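Something for you to look into today, if you have time. What I am after is a single protein written out in full by you. I want to see for myself how the chain folds. Could you add the entry underneath, on a fresh line?
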Amino acid sequence: METQLNSKAAEPSNIIECILHTQEKDLDIKPGVVEIYYYQSVLDCTVRVTLTVTDTGYRYRDSDNSSILDSTKLKTTVGEFVSLKFEDNQGNGVSFSKDTNNPLMIKEIYGFGADVSKEVFKIDLWSEEATYNNLKGAKVVSSYNDKPSNIVEEILRKNLKTQKSLDIEKTQNNLRYIGNKQKPFYSCVELASKSTPSQGKTPGILAGFFFYETSVGYKFKSIDTLLSQPSVRKYIANETTKLPPQYDGKIYHYNFSSNYDLENILMLGSFTDTALTTIDPVTEEVIVQTFDHTSQNLRSNNAGNEFPEISSGWKIKNESASYTVVKDNGSLPQGTTVQEQLNRSLDQNFIPEQVVRQSRSRYNQLYSNRLTLTIAGDIGLNVGDMIHCGFAEITSDKSTISESPTRSGLYMITELCHRLTTDGTWSRLQCVRDSFGRKPI
């Protein structure tokens, strides 16, 4: 049975707390906050928030009546902590607070407008670790010989000293990694591109991870594990105020964009077979191997049912991307003594045959189908979540309306913005999928 659409979800939401922790005292700026933009992205190592604040200088029971930016007592500047709590009209909320060891930090303050009675300014916030990531003492200088997942966890705990929750998927491969005084976030992203998931029973088929932050902590997850998740919400784009059974909400605005550029596909090999030439510097052996991209369509790890067929009338199966790499033999061999290192001097550190083409192919496949949509505010959504979207099939036959068999289906959220204003609450989502076809709800 259809249910009536509840428009309350898009009404103004509740800002529970917004406290500016200055050098002198804690200041409640919640009454002046007129707009909140809350951002997440699987390509960003930190959550971000932009506050729009209107300040007249009035403080209840406070002798300091200057605005925040004019006050000589508050001395507000970048690097100060901010505790922020807010929720939507469906009971979903987020909390960034000193009490829970995850306050936000001011990245930038800039004016937006002013007159003789008030001033309007914006405050850009990011996570505390994003600031520590730029400090000299946090740089990665160690040498590691372990699974990339374990290295990432060690960097987050020891270099960034984060106390936040870590959701780290165990990787299949081992890696010899040297920090080279890189920033922690840079190292985590670099390791993500060189990782293979444990769910890939046969090495050399699946590869590629994301490192990112949500309101619940840091995540290090493979593309295929994310795509294997069930949907957390189901949305539909229709022209009525009623929701069909099984759907949670309505899509108010949307647009599709594809990334099927033939030149890029041939160059990157996202939907074509690719050749890899490896050169062994010890034996001088040259090996050419071809990788079939369709082997990455295991159904359980894909948003749709099938990959697109590129240039079906033109034979390009083995005529696209080609890479040449030199095997990493003998560099920094394992062992605590010279003899142990000599015995393992021919061991291969990084195995490009199992990672290079596979990860590059998966990243490009994932972003081949893009969807941007706007829904009523739902702060319970995070990047990395899977959602089901239903779209009507475009056809001249208007006697029946059915879902599009190609555009409807599962999508992964890669970027989002939750917007809370005095006018309403909205969520804008950037979603992607690696294949076509609608899987059953």
User: Anything to note?
Assistant: The chain has seven helices and 24 strands. The longest strand covers residues 409-421.
